[in-house]
Amino acid sequence: MAKSTQRPVGRPRSEDVRDRVVGAADELLAETGYLGMTMDEIAVRAKVSKKTLYRWWPHKAAVTAEVLVARADVRAIADLGDTRAELLVLFGYIDDFTRARDTFTRLCLTEAAADESGVLQSFLDLVLRRRDQARAVMQRGIARGDLPADIDADALLDLWNGYFVYRRSFRPAPVHEDTVRQLVDLALAGQVPRLPREGRGPHAVGG
Prior knowledge:
Elements: H1 15-36, H2 39-46, H3 50-56, H4 60-71, H5 83-99, H6 102-112, H7 117-143, H8 153-169, H9 177-188
Helix pairs in contact: 1-2, 1-4, 1-6, 4-6, 4-7, 5-7, 5-8, 5-9
């Protein structure tokens, strides 16, 4: 049975301990990667007891989730009055998100914590905030008449993110600016996934 990931009751966690543990794990992820990092090494590097470490983080997946959230950069995409320009900015954010050394770590974390929603919840909340910013761009594009009203924004964003992740993690290859511009132009030409007919509505932009 999976270990509980709920925070223990009682005295609040020390922010100094959190900062040291997150800092130590961040360094170890850079040095050895997720697969090579151990809880023992985190405790030694952070100068905390294993009892303290396990009290707040039951395993390295929980520590890693906190590291990824601490590193996160959720930026709003400004209304530029130009859907093409905004989509190119969005691609720049996807590029940054998938170029970082965290990409493989995210994949490992998702696999390791697949049956423990508590471990991933804060990280998934971060992903949803990023997705909301991207959806806002799509909504503005629809309002301007630049994107179809029945666009399945989630499917399109999954395709775009998946393209970058695949190129960065499984088939190392450059992502050319010309390719990005072509993907944007395809979207503006209406070549995008569409919502099922029953899911369409005046404000439908994916689930």
